[in-house]
Design goal:
The chain has 326 residues and is α/β, with parallel strands linked by helices. It is built from ten helices and 14 strands.
Length: 326
């Protein structure tokens, strides 16, 4: 069996919030017992509403947010046990594209300096070879060579995101973690960035860990999809399986909320009932039960465990929408 590039085992993240004069702090469990794997050349998407814990989970995978319980492994090695050279190698191999292309690029640096920065930090190449690499990367993301002399404010949002992708590609990573890479862009630009990411994957064999609330975009790029609700994975499956036969009511609701085109017009999606609860006071049992039309008394008292309902298809639901396999 091939070792996953990235893997989490029971990953849990808690934050202490509040507290003060004669007032104790409270723990918020932002991510709860999440175990997933990312293989070579694969795109795994993590979907869910805002506040579901997607970005916190990604930051914990990168070592940017402390882990309360569980493990993160890169190429089979535990992140907590890595020495400094191994951790540096991991950081070179796992790059990030952030949500906001307007805030993630230093306005004081030229595009050449921005894209070459990972090469300089990791001691890759000479000044001349770095400059040549910048030109090569600009071409890969569809920008002219003379763009290297300009500054971020001289580019559109879509062009800035291309620059951010070029920067992530600079040290030849094995994985790119893309945190809502389309949300700050116009719809017309989103498709261009999606096509670019897909083309780069086919050309380089890179793996993507894609964080998004946009299920239409995820369908275009992902091989597998995991749905996260209030810090818990409620369903994970191959893309076509999850989109075709969702097993969890939350996943079904997310898919129903996606606008659809048909009959000569764009039909709005069906909004999810209610709001996502506060992680300060999550519901007992299944966290989704107050918003679920399939909930029973059991759902309010017993938290469901993730279990298989089909080949490469698991869900955490007492009453899955598909019949579990024997």
């Amino acid at each position: 069996m091939t070792t996953p590039i990235l893997q989490t085992e029971g990953l849990t993240v808690r934050f202490a919030v509040g507290g003060g004069w004669l007032k104790p702090s409270r723990d918020v469990q932002a991510v709860s017992d999440v175990s997933i794997t990312l293989s070579a050349g694969e795109t795994l998407a993590l979907v869910g509403e805002s506040g579901s814990g997607k970005t916190t989970f990604a930051r914990a995978m990168l070592g940017l947010t402390p882990i309360s319980e569980g493990r993160v492994r890169y190429d089979g090695a535990d992140l907590a046990d890595m020495d400094k050279p191994a951790r540096q190698a991991m950081r070179r191999a796992v790059q990030v594209v952030f949500q906001d292309p307007f805030g993630s690029l230093d306005p004081r640096l030229s595009i050449e300096a921005i894209i070459a920065e990972p090469l300089r930090i990791h001691g890759i190449g000479t000044a001349r070879s770095r400059a040549e690499r910048v030109v090569e990367l600009l071409a890969q993301v569809g920008l002219p060579a003379d763009a290297r002399r300009r500054y971020p404010h001289q580019f559109s949002g879509g062009q800035r995101q291309r620059i951010a992708i070029a920067r992530a590609l600079a040290p030849a990573p094995r994985v790119i973690i893309a945190d809502e890479p389309l949300s700050a862009l116009d719809v017309s630009i989103q498709s261009q960035i999606l096509n670019l990411m897909d083309e780069l994957r086919q050309r380089t064999g890179i793996s993507y860990f894609l964080i998004s609330h946009d299920l239409a975009a995820v369908h275009h790029l992902a091989d597998r999809v995991a749905a996260l609700y209030l810090g818990r994975v409620v369903e994970i499956a191959d893309r076509d399986t999850l989109y075709g036969t969702p097993a969890h009511p939350y996943t079904k609701a997310l898919l129903a909320a996606v606008p659809r085109i048909g009959g000569g017009k764009r039909a709005p999606g069906q909004a999810l009932p209610g709001d996502i609860p506060s992680p300060l006071a999550p519901p007992s049992g299944c966290h989704f039960h107050p918003r679920c039309g399939y909930a029973t008394a059991r759902c309010s008292t017993e938290a469901p465990k993730l279990r298989e309902v089909g080949r490469n298809h698991s869900t955490a639901c007492h009453h899955p929408l598909v019949e579990p396999t024997a």
